[in-house]
Every structure is written in C-alpha cells, then in structure tokens.
Design brief:
The protein is an all-alpha fold and 321 residues long. It is 69% helix and 2% strand. The longest helix has 31 residues, at 229-259.
Length: 321
C-alpha cells in the first residue's frame, strides 16, 4: 500500500551479516500485522453491526445502522460491540502482515522480473496480495463471523477453540472452515487491488506534483519523501471507499455463506450464484445486496486510513524505507 517513493529495500552493505535481508521481511511482516490490528480495533463495533445486518439477525434486522449501534449496548452491554474481536485480532495480525509484505514482494516481482510497471502493477500486486492473505487466514475469518453473529443468551459457541471444534465436527471437517471462500476471493481481488491501486496512485501523484505541500522527509531516511499524516489518512480513506463500493455485494454473499447453519435459510446460500440470487430476490438491491453499505463507508474510511498510516509509521520505526 505504498508508493515507489517510500518503498525500497536497503542496499546490501558489504560489512553487513548475510541475514540482514531476512530481517527486512520480518520487519515488514510485523509492520503489516500491527497496522492491521490498529485498523480493525478502531472500527470493531462497526464490524459487529455490519455482520448482524448482513446476516439479517432476527434481533436487529428491523433496525438500521445507527439504531443497531444503540441497541447492541442496551441488549448485550458495551462489550457486545466488540464480540468476536478477539478472534479478529488472532486473524488480522497474520492477515495484515501477509497482505502488506506480499504486496511489496509482488510489486517488485511484477516490475523487475516480469516487466510490468506503471500504475497497473499496483492493481495486480494488490489483488494478488489480498488473495494470498485471504487464503492463509480464511478459517479465522469464519470463526470471527460466527462469534460476532451470536447474541447474548443465545450462544452456540463458547469461544474460539469451541467454535473450531464444533464447526469441524458438525460441518464437514476442514471444508466447514472454507464456506464462502469463492465469493471472498472474487470480492477480494477488486477490493484489495483497487485499494492498493488508489492509495499508491494518489500517493505517487501527490509526492510528484506537490512534494512540499503534501510530503515530508521520512524520519528514518531523510532522502525518502513520505506523505504527511493527515494526507496519508485522506488517501487511505478514499482508497477504502472506492474499493468497498465495487466489491460490497460479494462481501454480503461471503458473510451469509460463512454464517452457514447459524442462519435459518442457510440451505439457500450454498454457492455464490445461489446466494446472490436469493438475497436479490428476497431483499432486493438496497436492502439486500447493499444492506449495511452506509455503515461500510463509515467503517472503511477510518479503517483503511489507519491501516495505511500505521504501516507508513511502522516502516519508519522499523527502518523499512
């Protein structure tokens, strides 16, 4: 999620130990993980409400976004807004770490070895990085969705370990953890691709045409120009909003397939095509395929803004520029 102006592997120095380059990838992994955790914790209550609305939870399906945000604390206490966030943190650290690290790797691979450069390699590298991160961490996303969908007094799972055990025994073993993977992968390609592409493009254009207004020297490398914090936040927010708009119907289908047997109409959501058709037929576009989109705009802007900005900050702290 960074432009060429701020991503460059430190040149090899003859006096450095041979393991120096390995530590670069480790630091990149840590930076991405921290960025992901900070971003998701910031918008955890909004994520919980989104899952409740997307799955048409019977306790909240008659409510809107803001009324649900008010109703959850009344029914389940304020910690109810963070239900499932523990599972999210377990998932999001490796997810964010793999995504950011993979993006840097794929971008360099496409430009240096395959010869694809310009803005298009950001789009391709972002899509590939998103797919890689999803495949590696998908079971944890399913667990998180199940835990977040539960309502106080009607718990099917007692925690992360119990959810793993129950799904494995009752929903077909390992395959039970990959319900909804197809729409997730299809949705992640444009979402991650356009997110990285938009952010990287805005960043490179800003630093190229308005370096003094929008940029500042990196704290760990004065020769590298990075965006000012407020500009970083803005670019990240715009990137998230555009990406969410394009991929949201697939996100709705993914959530309904992930929730599986938790939903009373789960037998109608067994494939991507059937799920999209059922949601459209039953609820329409606004109240079905795009239900909760207003919430997604509210959550994706701060989430992506914090993710990009935290990653840029961690890169400077860990000397990745």
């Amino acid at each position: 999620m960074t432009s060429e102006a701020t991503v460059s592997t430190p040149p090899a120095i003859s006096s450095s130990p041979p393991t120096k380059r390995d530590y670069y990838w480790l630091r990149s992994f840590v930076a991405g993980g921290v960025a992901g955790c900070c971003a998701k914790t910031t918008i955890a209550p909004l994520d919980r409400v989104k899952i409740l609305l997307q799955g048409q939870n019977p306790h909240y399906k008659h409510l809107g976004v803001f009324s649900t945000l008010t109703a959850v604390p009344k029914k389940e206490g304020y910690l109810g807004l963070y239900k499932g966030n523990g599972a999210m943190m377990v998932r999001i650290f490796p997810y964010g770490a793999i995504q950011f690290m993979a993006f840097d790797y794929y971008k360099k691979l496409l430009s240096k070895r395959i010869g694809i450069s310009g803005h298009i390699h950001r789009l391709m590298a972002g899509s590939m990085a998103g797919l890689t991160a999803v495949i590696c961490t998908y079971p944890l996303d399913v667990i998180r969705a199940r835990l977040a969908f539960q309502v106080k007094g009607e718990h099917r799972y007692t925690g992360i370990a119990n959810a793993f055990h129950t799904i494995y025994l009752k929903e077909g073993g390992v395959s039970g953890f990959y319900r909804g993977l197809t729409p997730t992968l299809i949705g992640m390609a444009p979402y991650a691709g356009f997110s990285f592409f938009t952010y990287g493009t805005l960043k490179s254009l800003g630093l190229k045409h308005f370096p003094e207004l929008l940029g500042r020297p990196s704290s760990d490398n004065p020769d590298v120009l990075v965006l000012k914090t407020k500009v970083n936040l803005l670019c990240g927010g715009v990137a998230g909003a555009i990406a969410q708009t394009i991929s949201y119907p697939l996100d709705v289908a993914r959530r309904r397939m992930q929730l599986g047997s938790v939903l009373p109409d789960s037998e109608k959501c067994v494939s991507l095509r059937k799920t999209l058709t059922y949601v459209y037929t039953q609820y329409g576009i606004k109240k079905g395929l795009y239900r909760g989109l207003s919430l997604n705009y509210i959550r994706c802007v701060p989430s992506q803004a914090v993710a990009f900005t935290t990653y840029e900050f961690m890169k400077q702290v860990l000397h990745l520029n």
